[in-house]
């Protein structure tokens, strides 16, 4: 996500209950046939063993972008029988996010995001890092096209669940990136946006670029491999506090990394221009 108007696009509202068996979602997106082995009851040990095996297979499947749709279809089928199984539901949320993330049809994207959000909302009292993580990412991705009031409300929800997930898994690189990116966005809110938030919730969303840097640096520390988007927002945060040398160094690092998608290509293109702009300040 290059826009600072959303909290995640590369991480809640009341919605109608979504039927898995009779919804338009399956017709609109994928043909999700239940012809294969159908789970019986969550309480049966043999079924639970088979479920764990299926989830392990799906974890590998979701690593392959070409299989995102198939994984979502499989998880929808599992969720019809295991709607309160948190291990099924957080994976369904992840599949909804991954399938929605790069859709250009925003209406179709929103249907998928709301589907994932709806499934998660029944289990949000549980202390489960992955559930709160992917719920936050679904909420964050929806913010990009919401009106300002809804965007600010979603922002508070996003922050709440990112922080809940971080309490449970403080060394998660993605979660630290999400919080840092949120703090970067909040630091850039206009005066009127802050006043609207204060009117709606009794207090404004507040953060600083220094706070954003702290969490984005943690994301760098905990990451298993360099990440273009984290380096980009970390570099931008250093720019905001006039640490231009650190900023330019980070921009130079990210332009040398292989991009994984069009969004990262756009960030690299922007970074090249910013290197030219800020090199004179170093």
Automatic annotation (TrEMBL):
InterPro entries for this protein: RMD1-3_a_helical_rpt, TPR-like_helical_dom_sf, TPR_rpt
Keyword tags: Cytoplasm, Cytoskeleton, Repeat, TPR repeat
SUPFAM superfamilies in UniProt: TPR-like
Domain of life, source organism: Eukaryota
Subcellular location per the Swiss-Prot or TrEMBL entry: Cytoplasm, Cytoskeleton
Pfam families xrefs: RMD1-3 (PF21033)
Single GO cellular component term: mitotic spindle pole
SUBUNIT field: Interacts with microtubules.
Protein name stated in the entry: Regulator of microtubule dynamics protein 1
């Amino acid at each position: 996500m290059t826009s600072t108007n959303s909290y995640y696009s590369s991480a809640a509202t009341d919605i109608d209950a979504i039927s898995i068996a009779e919804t338009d979602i399956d017709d609109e997106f994928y043909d999700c046939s239940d012809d294969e082995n159908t789970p019986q009851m969550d309480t049966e040990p043999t079924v639970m063993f088979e479920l764990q095996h299926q989830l392990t297979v799906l974890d590998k499947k979701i690593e392959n972008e070409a299989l995102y749709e198939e994984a979502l279809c499989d998880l929808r089928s599992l969720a019809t029988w295991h709607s309160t199984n948190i291990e099924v539901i957080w994976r369904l949320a992840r599949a909804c996010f991954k399938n929605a993330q790069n859709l250009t049809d925003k209406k179709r994207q929103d249907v998928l995001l709301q589907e994932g959000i709806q499934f998660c909302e029944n289990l949000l009292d549980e202390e489960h890092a992955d559930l709160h993580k992917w719920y936050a990412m679904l909420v964050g991705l929806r913010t990009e096209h919401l009106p300002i009031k809804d965007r600010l409300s979603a922002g508070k929800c996003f922050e709440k669940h990112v922080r809940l997930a971080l309490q449970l898994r403080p060394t998660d690189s993605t979660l630290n990136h999400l919080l840092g990116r949120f703090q970067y966005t909040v630091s850039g809110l206009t005066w009127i946006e802050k006043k609207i938030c204060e009117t709606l919730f009794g207090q404004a969303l507040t953060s600083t670029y220094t706070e954003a840097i702290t969490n984005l640096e943690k994301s760098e520390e905990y990451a298993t491999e360099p990440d273009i988007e984290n380096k980009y927002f970390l570099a931008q945060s250093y720019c905001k506090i006039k640490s231009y040398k650190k900023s330019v160094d980070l921009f130079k690092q990210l332009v040398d990394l292989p991009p994984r998608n069009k969004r990262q290509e756009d960030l690299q293109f922007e970074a090249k221009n910013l290197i030219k702009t800020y090199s004179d300040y170093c």
